[in-house]
Specification:
The complex is a heterodimer of chains A (184) and B (93). The termini of chain A are far apart. By secondary structure, chain A is mainly alpha-helical. The longest helix of chain A has 22 residues. Chain B is mainly α. Chain B has 4 helices and no strands. Classes of the chains: A mainly alpha (184), B mainly alpha (93). At the A-B interface, α2, α5, α6, α7 and α8 of A face α1, α2, α3 and α4 of B.
Chain lengths: 184, 93
């Protein structure tokens, strides 16, 4: 019993073990809900939901669906299954941080980040915000993010998943090369 | 209602494993692109292998039918991936 307790409270597990957990979750998603894991779609659904309330004319397009239109929208602007999943992800992440006693409100405490960019938290926020916009845009074009396309597509042997993985590895390496420069 | 409970429970598993694998930390993401820390690839590939094996066994047993798979359109997936990588390396999440 104590062994299980100390195992759960470890700060980080072997990535292979955590991967097995995620693989089982992905498997159960298909088995129990007959759908795929995904994160970015939920954000787009919420964005569509808010946008349709604020500026219906702007958000009435092929992507979020036209009112009374016959074509199925790419992203349904409603509380979808993956929005609920995201609530669970939040709870799960918090529980994991609490279990390993690493739960803490942090603004910028990554030593590597501080070494590269300096200690100012605002830089972290600006870069994080810009990066997040680019990530969401790329995910919207590709049709999924690392979880929705790369992992869920990969487990179904979908070519799109492997194209997407190749894409983000290539541009990620180039971006880090540019940002880190000689410190790479 | 049941589907929502399933979603929350699966989400908890998802979030828990992400946190325990350390993917909530900036240096894990950045160092993957420098090839000094291979956590992301180990984590993603293990997950894909486990789920893939299980899914094809379950389909063979007739327990599941595959949901609609993500569409493949070569240019879109590739360009989307290229843009995604820039953001991922900058934000580090």
């Amino acid at each position: 019993m104590n062994q299980i307790k100390s195992f759960i409270s470890k700060e980080s597990w072997s990535p292979y073990l955590a991967g097995i957990v995620l693989g089982t979750v992905g498997l159960l998603t298909v088995l129990l809900a007959n759908t795929l894991l995904g994160a970015s779609g939920a954000f787009e659904s919420i964005a569509g939901l808010i946008g349709k309330k604020i500026a219906p004319s702007v958000f009435s397009n092929v992507y979020w669906g036209v009112e009374g239109g016959r074509a199925m929208p790419v992203i349904r602007p409603e509380i979808t299954w993956s929005v609920i999943l995201l609530v669970g992800v939040f709870i799960g992440g918090t529980l994991a941080a609490l279990s390993s006693r690493t739960f803490k409100f942090r603004f910028n405490d990554d030593t590597q980040w501080k070494r590269i960019f300096g200690p100012q938290p605002w830089k972290r926020w600006v870069l994080g915000f810009l990066g997040a916009i680019i990530v969401a845009y790329g995910a919207g074009i590709a049709g999924g993010c690392t979880s929705g396309l790369a992992i869920s597509g990969g487990m179904l042997f979908v070519p799109a998943a492997f194209l997407f993985m190749a894409g983000f590895m290539v541009s990620g390496i180039i971006t880090i090369l540019i940002v880190y420069g000689r410190r790479y | 209602m049941t589907t929502f409970i399933i979603a929350v429970v699966l989400g908890i598993g998802f979030g828990f494993s992400l946190n325990k694998a350390g993917l909530t930390k900036y240096h894990k993401i950045a160092n993957q692109f420098r090839f000094t820390d291979m956590t992301i690839l180990k984590y993603m590939m293990t997950a894909i292998c486990v789920a893939m094996t299980g899914l094809y066994i379950f389909r063979g047993l007739g327990w599941v039918t595959f949901p609609t798979v993500p569409a493949t359109y070569i240019l879109g997936n590739l360009i989307g991936g290229l843009i995604f990588g820039v953001g991922m390396a900058l934000a580090g999440y």
